[in-house]
Amino acid sequence: MTAVSSRATEPPADILFRLKVRVVPAIREVWQRRELVRTLAERDLRVRYKQAVLGVAWSILTPLALMIVFTVFFQRVAKVDTGGAPYALFTYLGLLPWTFFSTSVSQGGQSLVVNNQLVNKVYCPREVFPLASMAVAAVDTALATLVLGLLFVVTGFMPKPTTVWVPVLLAVQVAFTFGVTLVLSAVLVFLRDLRHVLPIILQLGLFATPVAYGMDVVAPSLQVAYSIANPLAPVIDGYRRTMLLGLAPDWHLLGPAAVAAALWLAVGYVVFKRLEPGFADYA
């Protein structure tokens, strides 16, 4: 009798709400709102540097300061094998992708909470907020890349022809970064304590990623698993191999990392869209 009455109170199957994640229409909608992404990114850049005396120079100073610290202290203690390349170039090539990742995750993870008024009042695909944060991180990274060019000139160590592989590495880097940013931006709406833990995780991640050292530190038997767990590792190693050593990326490591990055992007997008209906209530 209880089972019958329970079924009687259930809503008809044809009116049940089922959220379907439709990738192509969602991507098309985001592309149609690309001007909104640009506007949000410009706003964030203006707000960030408006009251700063050094302005956009702060985007350069952070990786530059870390490079100097690693060069002065870490190199002497660890005696890193750079394959003959100057250590300043070696570590700066690791800092650029790491800075892009950490800034995207840190700012993009909080983008929905910070823009809660827009989330509640303006209709738009919610992906535009983490995308705008990634665009800001991309601008910062592009400015910091100017220092890389200066380092090549100062050290007299020129990029190798195998630098043509950089777009492939960049695609893996962006896919992984966007996937992680999507997951964190969605989850952080419901778990606000995560924003206090996130800076600690990123600080630990800096030393768990081969930024100040090379992939040779990791045991060969663990490198594939390490690359899957942290796709940034073979990406950074790939930048160094292609730009400094004249070698192709290590496909044995980059291949699994690319698959892991694609999975992060796919899962991150599904999680984001599944949680999206609750953003307006909790943001």
Describe this structure in words.
- The chain has 283 residues and is mainly α.
- The protein has one domain.
- The protein has 14 helices and no strands.
- It has helices at residues 2-9, 23-32, 34-49, 58-78, 87-109, 111-114, 116-121, 128-155, 166-190, 194-208, 223-229, 232-245, 251-275, 279-282.
- The chain is globular.
- The model is unreliable at 1-6 and 13-17 (pLDDT under 50).
Number of strands: 0
Which blocks of ≥5 consecutive residues have pLDDT under 50?
A: 1-6, 13-17
Provide the β-strand percentage band.
under 5%
**Count of folded domains:** 1
Radius of gyration from CA coordinates: 22 Å
Largest sheet: none
Short description:
This protein has 283 residues and is mostly helical.
Helix-strand blueprint:
Layout: H1 2-9, H2 23-32, H3 34-49, H4 58-78, H5 87-109, H6 111-114, H7 116-121, H8 128-155, H9 166-190, H10 194-208, H11 223-229, H12 232-245, H13 251-275, H14 279-282
Features:
single chain, 283 residues, mainly alpha, 73% helix
